[in-house]
Amino acid sequence: MVGQVRFTKIELKNQRDRLKLLGQYLPSLKLKKLMLQAEVNKVAEELRQREAEYEKAYAWVLSYAEIFSDISVYDLMESVIVETVITDQENIAGADTPIFKEVIFAKADGLLFNRPLWVDEAVHLLRELIKIKEKAKIVQKKKEILEKELREISIRVNLFEKVLIPRTEELIHQIQIFLADVDLQAIAQAKMAKTKLLRKKEESA
């Protein structure tokens, strides 16, 4: 007996059934691992693109640095305050991941009607820069969720391949040896009993 396992024919059948189930479940785990790895690679590439896009947009905004130092810049900043970021969800290989939808900017109360003409263009540029940044944040969050899911599924695959299946196979082997020994002992005892019975018959004759 190993732990609470009984070395019986019933237990042998149970362990064989368990091994069969483990063998059936492992391929689906491996497939999910492959899918998650592919998605992680895909999202990592998307994140690199978003970061490059942000750097390009940021450099463009910097070219307006002198204009942003204008005294009416307070008017500009009121127009680019983020009120909320709207997202949706997408299920990837069993993991719920966020999708960027839209940035809602707070309504500016103190805008001047006679503001310089460049302000509208500057507002547009800054809002686009903020949108790109928020998109990158969502992609980063998505990447983290998928990486966490990938780590967990990798642990489960390793558990099946390196622990559960080998342990069950070894237990089946041990039970088979035990039952074979029991059968041999039973045969030997039966032969001994038969021999004694024949001797008694011979002696009585």
Can you give a write-up of this model?
With 205 residues, the chain is mainly alpha-helical. The chain has a single domain, classed as Helix Hairpins, CATH 1.10.287.3240. 74% of the residues lie in helices and 11% in strands. The chain contains four helices and two strands. It has a two-stranded antiparallel sheet with strand order 1-2. Helix 1 runs antiparallel to helix 4. It is rod-shaped and about 130 Å long.
Number of domains: 1
CATH class: Mainly Alpha
Q: Quote the beta fraction.
A: 5-15%
Structural class: mainly alpha
CATH architecture designation:
Orthogonal Bundle
What's the count of strands? 2
> What's the CATH topology name?
Helix Hairpins
Helix content: over 70%
Q: What is the radius of gyration?
A: 36 Å
SSE topology sketch:
Elements: H1 9-62, H2 65-68, H3 73-78, E1 82-92, E2 95-105, H4 118-204
Helix pairs in contact: 1-4
Salient structural properties:
mainly alpha, 74% helix, Helix Hairpins
Describe the structure in brief.
With 205 residues, the protein is mostly helical. 74% of the residues lie in helices and 11% in strands.
